Amino acid sequence: MAEAKSKKKSKRPAWVKPRPLNGLPSLDALPRDEFLAATKHFFSTLTKPIIDSRTPKTGGREFAASYTRMVDTIVGILFQRAAERHHLSTDETGIAVIGMGGYGRTELAPYSDIDVLVICRKKTKKVEAVAGSFIRLMWDFGFELGHAVESLVESETALTQHMDTKTALIESRWVCGSARAARAVERQVARIRSNDREEYLRTKIEDALVRYAKYGRSFQLIEPNVKESPGGIRDFQTLVWIGQVGRKARGLGALRQKGLLLAGEQGELEQAYDFLLRVRTELHLLTKSKQDQLTVADQKRVARVLGYRSRDGHLDVEKFMRDYYTHTRAIFRITDDVIGEMGRGANVGVMLGKSRIHLDRETLNVPIRRESIKKDPLRIFRAQQQTGQKLARSLRRRLEVVLREHLKGREILARMRRDFAALVESDHNVDLVVRSLHGTQFLMRIIPEYEKLTCLKRYDLYHHFTVDEHSFKVLENIAALGRPDANPADPLVRLYSEISDKRPLILVALLHDVGKIEGRGHAKKGAVLARKILKRLSLPEEEIELVCFLIRHHLLMSHFSQRRDPSDIGTIRTFCDTVIDRTRLKHLCLITYADYKATSPLVWNEWKATLLWELYIRAYDFMAKREKEPEAVYKGHKVRLLESFIDGPARDSALAHLDLLPGTYLLTSTPKMVRDHMAMVEAIEKERFAIDIDLEGSAYRITFCTHDQPYRLSQLCGALTLSDFSILYAHAFTRRDGKVIDVFDIEDMSPSEDPASVVQRLDKMRSRLGDIFDGTINLDKATQAHAKKWRRVHRRGIPRATKVQFENDLSIDHTIIDVFAPDRPGLLYRITHALSSQNLVIFRAKISTEADRAIDSFYVAGGDGGKVTSPTRLQRIRRALERAIE
């Protein structure tokens, strides 16, 4: 717009002046189709050197500006063609073509929309004809076009009604056409900046808050939207828009002048924005579309183009995403701070008056005296622990400067580490304090390893957050158990209250993933690193041993609860032998809960809480009694079950029923379940099968009683899959008289539907179960067709190879087969069918899912009832499973 104002004559800017097309004498001389083809070829010729010459060091703004200039050239040519077709010069049309949005900012990505305002002083038939010809040429050329054709009067009306139009015009610029019309638009923009500024600012802030709510205020999404996610391009633009209402300085300069940006923040923002523009450019070029979602598949491709390479145990994509999150973290933190200083829209007057911002009285802001902070480096953080206030922005910045310039030397560092160890003795506001230590770089000075953990993201769909953010969320989950508002009925809250020394849990929360800076196998590597860190903190050796043990085994309890059967005596014995005592068990249970819950908003649920608590109770009981002989355990549980039956025929029948079943049935059944199962066994004397359904809770339990037949378990899995149920756990009990009791814990794959549909689908399954048993329904074809139905709602993830592992030392009676495979509907049917085809008896199945990967475990025995140990046979089973899953 400034360019239009500075030129008194209607002269087109030199870089918009059309260039000759392949030496052709006149634009108007070519037929329309030939003209468009020649123009497209010319555009390709213009843009190819820009695209081909980019390197990993090419800036995002540099590329966007060059690409936008080429688009300007073509827009000028198309507009000239439209004008000449109506025997007018471009200035005689009275029309100005104004670029808006990203086009107006000269920040186009290769497949971005071209947003233009075609504006005239007054609409006439000839003006409308020229404008129509121009718009049609733009469409036919292939531009994705966002456009409006308006007179100056209509434009003024739109400005009073649409805030988005105001924003677009503030960033607009003259591309081609009438300079006189362009100057008129510039005068409109001047009025925008002086009128309705408060409404404009509040709207921009409200838009940002709505976006934050949509994305959960997280700049660390697994598949972020480069443009819209918190910390993305739109956040930077929001800051610029807020600054556009300044009377003198504009954009980020206006925010700096008002004190809304602190020293160094503008440069930090500009660098981050340039990086994101480059990422967006590569996304467009790689996908050949207007793609702003940085999917896991695209992340690896972008990383390679930008020159990242795998080394030191870290993938190229992990290095790239660490830089990505570092930049989005900076933009989000600063934008959130600025919006906070403006009272989330309630205090926009700070941008409109002459004064700078007032300090936020709700934050902690105290003076820093150089000598006193050298003697007591963490005193401000101790004060924060007492008050529970966030640190003021200016205090955070001053602390960073003090740390960098004045807190040096071994003596001061030793004091900081000693004070830190004392600081984390209490869980009071400890999560808030640790975040402040991290945000001011103090944590990295105390624990240098945290520098490498910051914004580090592993290439998977399971962990939603970077390693540092995940660790802080684990700490928040631990600290929440001790808050006054914690639910006393929650068993984990009670368990937490039983632990007097909270520091080991706090340190484990902070350090449990420290091994990820060295690559895979992070638990063992983390324990080694943690020992070095804790020794620097001068902690007692006994406490160091406990923390390192918990870090080394922090995945153990999740592994056993999700993939192993705690009712199996060999399994629970192995687990307890590793954990050793009940004190460690309590710590491990709490850390497992906090770690699970912090992994992803979707990972922790009632089902997993139940599995974790069941393992804790069984392990605690086993440790208390140190039960060693399985038969003694089974006998004790049989006595417990029989006590609920009255002496006489009822107890005799129950005893006969229990004597026909394996010992694990005794450990997993309640008296009510035994009664229900006995009734079902009696029912199948006349019927082919009996079904019992419990619809309470988030996971449903369904029990089948049938006569044992080959492939029976896989048939039941197929029936449940066809009814849109996902299987969480399967337990198969076979009586010695050939009757089987198969218990499934399931969840609904269609939870958004009417709950009544669950009952309807179960009734339909019941009615067709006979056809499945008879083979009338071909389960192979039916499950394949069913999988196609769900394929469209399952996003593409990281490529996963199928892996099959065998475990013969953990269970006394069974071989355990672990299957890792890409998750999809019908997978469990295919696996159980393959296992049955290998003459294996499946006793239990535990089903677990990590993001896009299924991790299923099966307790099996050979046809002779023993473990499968032959290497040749194990290899056949592996091949059968791999073929079935392909």
Distance between the termini: 60 Å
Low-confidence stretches: 1-25
The radius of gyration over CA amounts to 34 Å
Please give the largest β-sheet. 8 strands, antiparallel
Percent of residues in helices comes to 55-70%
Strand order of the largest sheet: 5-6-8-7-11-12-10-9
- Tally of separate helices: 39
Number of strands: 12
Shape: globular
Structural class: alpha+beta
Beta content: 5-15%
Q: Mean of the pLDDT scores? A: 86
Write a structural description.
The protein has 886 residues and is α+β, with helices and mostly antiparallel strands. Helices cover 55% and strands 10% of the residues. It contains 39 helices and twelve strands. The strands form two sheets. An eight-stranded antiparallel β-sheet has the order 5-6-8-7-11-12-10-9. A four-stranded mixed β-sheet has the order 3-2-1-4, sandwiched between helices. The longest helix has 26 residues, at 60-85. The protein is globular, with a radius of gyration of 34 Å. The two termini are 60 Å apart. The model is unreliable at 1-25 (pLDDT under 50).
Helix-strand layout with pairing:
Blueprint lengths: L1 H5 L25 H21 L7 H26 L9 E5 L1 H4 L9 E7 L4 H17 L3 E7 H10 L1 H8 L2 E5 L1 H16 L2 H18 L18 H11 L8 H6 L7 H23 L8 H10 L10 H26 L28 H6 L3 H9 L5 H13 L4 H14 L6 H10 L2 H5 L3 H4 L13 H14 L10 H7 L5 H9 L10 H15 L4 H12 L3 H8 L5 H11 L2 H18 L6 H20 L4 H13 L6 H11 L3 H6 L2 H13 L5 E6 L5 E8 L4 H11 L2 E10 L4 E10 L7 H19 L4 H13 L11 E5 L7 E8 L4 H11 L2 E11 L2 E10 L8 H15 L1
Parallel strand pairs: 2-3
Antiparallel strand pairs: 1-2, 1-4, 5-6, 6-8, 7-8, 7-11, 9-10, 10-12, 11-12
